[in-house]
Design a protein that fits this description.
The chain is of the alpha/beta class and 397 residues long. It contains 16 helices and ten strands. The protein has one domain: TIM Barrel (Alpha-Beta Barrel). The protein has an eight-stranded parallel barrel with strand order 1-2-3-4-5-6-8-9, surrounded by five helices. α8 runs parallel beside α10, α12 packs parallel to α14 and α14 packs parallel to α16. Ligand 9MR binds next to loops.
């Protein structure tokens, strides 16, 4: 009796699409899917839709809308900055978990998963670490111990609370770097050699047997020439294959998805093919930091619709290309945008010559743009046989 009652209530909630307080759908009044949130529509495919969260914005009592949209629209969250080394361990051995713990508590209250970002990266390192290495007070052996300690402490602290960890981020160079032949770049490769990548995954796995462990990078949305000397996607693919051969516990590839309307970018077929190739190795995939920025020409800044509209269209199209490709491969587990409003986006602060912006799915006043609606449409108008529910990834031992 108890069980039957629960099932009946559950069925009504499901029919209403889980909208708190919404009238249940009936045959004569079906739910209008365009009124559902991204997170509700994603669940039609078991696909988690996420956003990076700016903790200052989340805490801003003068702006409740930010919080409200994070909880309403998204089923997974990523800390935009507060899980990075400079925030977590600003002084050697002293950890500042407060801001990250707040995000985890927020996610729990809102029934959201958390992507952990990031364990090993060459940016946003604390100065005690970089200065210590450059002035020789931290030796190479000690540096390896420091890295192991950091990974172990951080992963253990969040054990059981992180769905996917970005274990290593942006380890591979770009064709515009010197030398132009792709290689392992940055602080960690320079000081420890590329073996730090396998170490990092092993240490992370030892600290949390259940989290999915990801390698995360940008400009790997599609394959190019196939030559790892200049095709970054191929380089990362070869790296992942070698890690798996060496029984390193890597579970997934995060494709960041930072695109710009001034570039050619890709089509859905190319991007879906790349995801399927990674899945062929036995890996999950995810889009982890999607945004599509535009150059803020004088015309855009002056409000000229001839300049603005094509950019909004192109931005929306690129959001859609990545989402359709993700939907097309059941191993693509989540699609996270790197901020959802132009009010809080890294883009204008980063690209100033020429200025760039308009990169997110809502404008500075939280008004949805075409990109937001196109994402919804993709989630609504897709399904079997070509779009199947997600296949959960088992963490590798
Ligand atoms: O969005 C982040 C911005 O607030 C920081 O200032 C910046 C520092 O490097 O990092 C940004 O996030 C980056 C992410 O951690 C890794 N991939 C690229 C993202 C955009 O730069």
């Amino acid at each position: 009796m108890q069980l039957k009652r629960w099932l009946t209530v559950g069925a009504v909630v499901l029919a209403a699409g889980g909208v708190a307080g919404a009238a249940p759908a009936t045959a004569s009044h079906p739910v209008d899917p365009s009124q559902q949130s991204l997170r509700q529509l994603g669940m039609r495919h078991d696909l988690y839709i996420g956003t990076a969260v700016d903790m200052a914005a989340l805490a801003d009592t003068a702006d409740p809308q930010y919080r409200e949209i994070v909880s309403r629209e998204f089923s997974t969250v990523t800390a935009e900055n507060v899980m990075k080394w400079e925030t977590l361990e600003p002084t050697r051995g002293t950890y500042n978990f407060g801001p990250a713990d707040e995000l985890i508590a927020f996610a729990k209250r809102n029934n959201q998963k958390v992507r952990g970002h990031v364990l090993v990266w060459q940016n946003q390192l604390p100065s005690w670490l970089t200065t210590g290495v450059s002035n020789g007070t931290i030796s190479k052996d000690e540096l390896r111990d420091i890295l192991r300690n950091h990974i172990t402490t951080v992963v253990k602290h969040f054990k059981g609370k992180i769905w996917q960890w970005d274990v290593v981020n942006e380890a591979v160079s770009d064709p515009w770097d010197t030398p132009s032949t792709l290689h392992y770049k940055g602080f960690w490769a320079q000081n420890l050699g590329p073996g730090y990548i396998a170490d990092a995954f092993r240490w992370a796995r030892a600290a949390d047997p259940k989290a999915l462990l990801f390698y995360n990078d940008y400009n790997i949305e599609a394959f190019g020439s196939g030559d790892p000397a200049n095709d970054k996607t191929q380089f990362v693919y070869d790296m992942a294959k070698a890690l798996l051969r060496d029984r390193v516990p890597i579970d997934g590839i995060g494709s960041q998805g930072h695109l710009g309307t001034q570039y050619g970018n890709y089509d859905t077929i190319q991007v879906a093919a790349a995801l399927k190739k990674f899945a062929g190795l036995g890996l999950a995939t995810a889009f982890t930091e999607v945004d599509v920025r535009s150059q803020m020409t004088a015309g855009v800044q002056a409000g000229d619709s001839n300049e603005i509209n094509p950019r909004l269209q192109a931005s929306a199209a690129n959001y859609s290309v990545l989402l359709q490709a993700c939907l097309a491969d059941p191993h693509c587990l989540s699609y996270t945008v790197w901020g959802f409003t132009d009010k809080h986006s890294w883009v204008p602060g980063w690209f100033s010559n020429p200025p760039e912006g308009m990169a997110t799915i809502m404008d500075e006043n939280y008004q949805p743009k075409r990109a937001y609606n196109l994402m919804k449409a993709d989630l609504i108008h897709s399904g079997p046989p070509y779009v199947q529910p997600r296949i959960p990834q088992k963490p590798r031992r």
